[in-house]
Write a structure and sequence with these properties.
Mean pLDDT: 95
Number of domains: 2
Shape: elongated
Radius of gyration: 21 Å
Strand content: 15-25%
Number of helices: 9
Largest sheet: 7 strands, parallel
CATH superfamily of the largest domain: NAD(P)-binding Rossmann-like Domain
Structural class: alpha/beta
Distance between the termini: 31 Å
Low-confidence stretches: none
Strand order of the largest sheet: 8-7-6-9-10-11-12
Order of helices and strands: EHEHEEEHHEHEEHEHEHEEH
Number of strands: 12
Helix content: 25-40%
Length: 322
């Protein structure tokens, strides 16, 4: 029997789906707040983002199936037991996070954020001209599940969409062009919207520093739903207060929770949500996560490669042959 520990908030129909995989699986359903180190260390398969410190001594572990797309907290040396596979939930969040990013950018384009503030102040004020996705140049940096879903929607709204990713691939029909990170500085000056959804690693750390932000249009909107470490907080604050760029929409911050005394809270050209675009706020996201877990637990039982296996060198998924 393989012991499967889950720390994801599953509904009865999710448990039924998982328990139908094999009679050789023994399930333990817990919560992150109450799961013990012993439960983690006795598991052969874990579904959910358990405390990384609990993995020391998990000598039986074959698979840790994360409920997140990001895997950075498990990437440090010695965290994962030797021989255990780490898989993320890439593919589950594109719908929810892509739409969230679209909503934030649209809100800023139409100045709805300013009108909401005026409404609180009972202030009947016209904020003037607005922007549109129609005819805009949209640069999507990071073309994984989330970036691709956002790009499709921007294209459908009439934007000219350009994609940047680590490795060049065949161009999908919804993109005007596809480029690598080496082209980023050349592409930034033409973009009306720059949409970022990249993991946190040494390559993306402070990628959008002040000098790079200065390459953007003064009217450009920068959206970030990946990791807050992409943009240094001080550089972000200065870029907005000095008018280096037009506005920022972000679901992440370099320090989370954002301190109550942070100057970012008071900037009128910033839309901030508290890292909630993914999670399970959209019920469909959890359905997709459970399906990925089902596939991978079954793959372990049958001795097959798992989907979304994380490369410990890059933090991205390993290349999967079709």
């Amino acid at each position: 029997m393989r012991k499967v520990l889950t720390v994801v908030p599953l509904q009865p129909h999710h448990k039924e789906i998982l328990e139908q995989i094999s009679p050789e699986l023994e399930f333990c359903y817990g919560e992150n707040e109450t799961v013990t180190p012993q439960q983690v260390q006795e598991a052969d398969i874990i579904f959910g983002n358990v405390n990384p410190d609990y993995l020391k001594g998990a000598y039986h572990l074959e698979l840790l199936q994360l409920n997140s797309a990001g895997a950075d907290q498990y990437m440090g040396e010695g965290i994962m037991p030797e021989g255990a596979k780490l898989a993320n939930a890439t593919g589950a969040y594109g719908l929810a996070v892509g739409e969230h990013m679209l909503a934030m950018v649209y809100t800023m384009m139409k100045k709805i954020n300013l009108y909401c503030k005026h409404m609180e102040e009972h202030n009947w004020t016209d904020e003037g001209t607005v922007g549109s996705f129609y005819g805009a140049n949209v640069l999507v940096v990071g073309l994984g599940d989330i970036g691709s879903e956002f790009a499709k929607r921007a294209h459908a709204l009439g934007s000219r969409v350009y994609g940047v990713r680590r490795n060049k691939t065949e161009k999908p029909e919804y993109l005007e062009g596809i480029y690598t990170m080496e082209d980023l500085d050349r592409l930034l000056p033409m973009a009306d919207v720059v949409a970022c959804s990249m993991p946190g690693n040494k390559e993306t750390y402070h990628l959008f520093h002040k000098e790079r932000l200065a390459r953007m249009k003064k009217t450009a909107i920068l959206a970030n739903v990946g990791r807050g470490s992409l943009i240094p907080t001080q550089d972000l604050s200065e870029a907005l207060t000095e008018g280096i760029i037009g506005g920022v929409c972000m679901d992440v911050a370099e320090t989370e929770p954002l301190p109550a005394d942070s100057p970012l809270w008071n900037l009128p050209n910033l839309i901030l949500t508290p890292h909630i675009s993914g999670f399970y706020h959209l019920p469909e996201t959890l359905e997709r996560i459970v399906e990925i877990a089902r596939e991978n637990i079954q793959a372990v039982c049958e001795g097959r490669p798992v989907k979304n296996e994380v490369d410990f060198e890059t933090g991205y998924r390993k290349f999967e042959r079709k």
